[in-house]
Design a protein that fits this description.
The protein is an alpha/beta fold. It folds into two domains: 201 residues, UDP-n-acetylglucosamine1-carboxyvinyl-transferase, Chain (Alpha-beta prism); 202 residues, Enolpyruvate transferase domain (UDP-n-acetylglucosamine1-carboxyvinyl-transferase, Chain), CATH 3.65.10. 29% of the residues lie in helices and 25% in strands. The strands form six sheets. A four-stranded mixed beta sheet has the order 2-15-17-16, covered by helices on one side. A four-stranded mixed beta sheet has the order 4-5-3-14, covered by helices on one side.
C-alpha cells in the first residue's frame, strides 16, 4: 500500500515518461521477423515488454536488452521460428498474448500461450482464433472457453481471406496485420465491429517503418501482399501518451503546469487526444521544442465525451471528474469491460468509495462533483486503476493505493516520477 500526499502549491514541473508500450511491443515483434539486427531506442521496459522479449527469446530470437539506455538490439530470423515447440507465459499482457498467438502460426510445431488468472478469466481471444482458423491455422482455446491457455499447432502460414470481429479488441487485428507479410499467399482481412483506429494506425506506422506496405480501405478491409520481408533498422520509440495523461491531469486539478518531454501533438498515438478533452474542461495546452505543457484552470468544467478511441484515458478522466464544476459523462467504452479488469465496474466502485455520486451504464458512466472521502483504493491488478486514482490523492488527504506494484505492467517507476511533482 502507498499513501499519496496532497500537493499544497501549483505545479511547475517537467516530466519524462517511458516509451510507448504500444510501439515497443509492436517493434519488438516486427524486428524479430526482420532478417538482421534492429536497434530499438527509447523503448519501454515493463512487465508487458519483458514478457514479449522473453517469449521471443524462447522462440529463437536473439535479443540484447539494456534497460539503463532504454534499448533493445534484436537479431531477427526473417519470419522463421527455429524451435518446434514452446510454452510461452505472458503474464497479464493482452497485446503479447494476441500477437504471439498469431506469430507462432508462422512456425512448425506445437506452441502454448498462457498467462495470469485475469487473462484466463476475463480477456477474450476467441475472435482472433476464429480468424486464424479461417486461413488454415490450427488454433484453439485449451478449455474451449475463448480464453487462455491457447494451443497453436502450426505448419507454416498459407494466408488468404479472413473475416475478423474486433468489437472486443483491436489487438486481434494488430496481431493478424503484423504477421501478414509472411503468409505465403498474403492476407486479406475483412473487419467487422467497432474500430479503435489509433491503435491500428500505430500498427500500420510500425509496419511501414520496417518496409511493409498495407492496402487499407477505410479500416474495414486490409490487403497485405506476401513476400514483403521486414527490413532491419534503427527505430526510436516516442513517449507513451497514455502514461503522459496522468501528469497532464495532475496539472488540470492543481491549477499548475506540467510539461511532458519529447511528446508532440502530431503523434498518432490516440491518447494524445486526451489533451483535447482537457482543453474543453478549461485547461491551456501549449507546445514547444521540449514537449507538451498543460496548465490547469482555477476550476475544471464538466464534459460529455465519447472515449471509444482513447479509452485507456477514461480512467484518468474519471479520477479527476469529481473536481469539475458539473457532471462528467464518459460514453462508448463498453469494450473496457474485457480489459485487465471490468474497468467501468472498477471506476464506479472506487468512485463510490470516495463518496462520489456515479451512475453506471453498460457503455460508460456519469460522475457528479463531490467532496472526497478518504479511503483505500483497490486496483484489481490493473495498472491504470492505480495510476489514475493516485491523482485523487494529489488533492485530498487519506488516499491510499493498494497493490501499487501493479503499475509495473507499463510504468514501473510511476510513483517515483509522480514524486517529481512535489519538487
Amino acid at each position: 500500500m502507498i499513501e499519496i500526499q496532497p500537493i499544497r502549491k501549483p505545479l511547475d514541473a517537467t516530466i519524462a515518461v517511458p516509451g510507448s508500450k504500444s510501439y515497443t511491443n509492436r517493434a519488438l515483434l516486427v524486428a524479430a521477423m526482420a532478417h538482421g539486427v534492429s536497434t530499438l531506442t527509447g523503448a519501454l521496459f515493463s512487465d508487458d515488454t519483458r514478457y514479449m522479449s522473453a517469449s521471443l527469446r524462447k522462440l529463437g530470437v536473439k535479443i540484447d536488452a539494456d534497460e539503463k539506455r532504454a534499448r533493445f538490439d534484436v537479431r531477427g530470423n526473417g519470419g522463421n521460428i527455429p524451435v518446434s515447440s514452446a510454452d510461452l507465459y505472458i503474464g497479464n499482457s493482452g497485446t503479447t498474448s494476441r500477437s504471439l498467438t498469431a506469430y507462432v502460426s508462422l512456425g512448425h510445431g506445437k506452441f502454448v500461450i498462457d498467462g495470469d488468472e485475469p487473462m484466463r478469466r476475463e480477456r477474450p481471444i476467441s475472435d482472433l482464433l476464429d480468424a486464424l482458423r479461417q486461413i488454415g491455422v490450427s488454433a484453439r482455446s485449451q478449455f474451449e472457453n475463448g480464453h487462455l491457455p491457447v494451443i497453436v499447432e502450426a505448419d507454416g502460414l498459407e494466408g488468404g481471406k479472413t473475416r475478423l470481429d474486433i468489437s472486443k479488441s483491436s489487438q486481434f487485428l494488430t496481431a493478424l496485420l503484423l504477421i501478414a507479410p509472411y503468409a505465403k499467399n498474403g492476407m486479406e482481412i475483412e473487419v467487422v465491429g467497432n474500430r479503435e483506429l489509433p491503435y491500428i494506425a500505430i500498427t500500420l506506422a510500425v509496419m511501414a517503418a520496417f518496409g511493409v506496405k498495407v492496402i487499407n480501405e477505410d479500416y474495414k478491409y486490409f490487403r497485405i501482399e506476401g513476400g514483403q520481408p521486414y527490413q532491419p533498422r534503427d527505430y526510436n520509440i516516442e513517449p507513451d501518451a497514455s502514461n503522459a495523461s496522468y501528469f497532464f491531469a495532475a496539472a488540470a486539478i492543481t491549477g499548475g503546469s506540467v510539461t511532458v518531454q519529447r511528446l508532440h501533438l502530431d503523434s498518432i498515438q490516440g491518447d494524445v487526444q486526451f489533451l483535447r478533452i482537457l482543453k474543453q474542461m478549461g485547461c491551456q495546452v501549449t507546445t514547444s521544442d521540449v514537449g507538451i505543457t498543460v496548465t490547469g484552470p482555477s476550476q475544471l468544467k464538466g464534459i460529455d465525451v465519447d472515449m471509444r478511441t482513447i479509452s485507456d484515458t477514461a480512467l484518468t478522466l474519471a479520477a479527476i471528474a469529481p473536481f469539475a464544476d458539473s457532471k462528467v459523462t464518459i460514453r462508448n467504452i463498453e469494450h473496457t469491460r474485457w480489459q485487465e479488469t471490468d474497468r467501468i465496474h472498477a471506476m464506479v466502485t472506487e468512485l463510490r468509495k470516495l463518496g462520489v455520486p456515479v451512475v453506471e451504464h453498460r457503455d460508460g458512466l456519469e460522475i457528479s462533483p463531490a467532496s472526497i472521502t478518504p479511503t483505500e483504493i483497490d486496483t484489481y491488478q490493473d495498472h491504470r486503476v492505480a495510476m489514475a486514482f493516485a491523482l485523487v490523492g494529489l488533492k485530498t488527504l487519506g488516499i491510499r493505493i493498494n497493490d501499487p506494484e501493479c503499475v509495473s505492467k507499463t510504468f514501473p517507476n510511476y510513483f517515483e516520477v509522480l514524486k517529481q511533482l512535489y519538487v
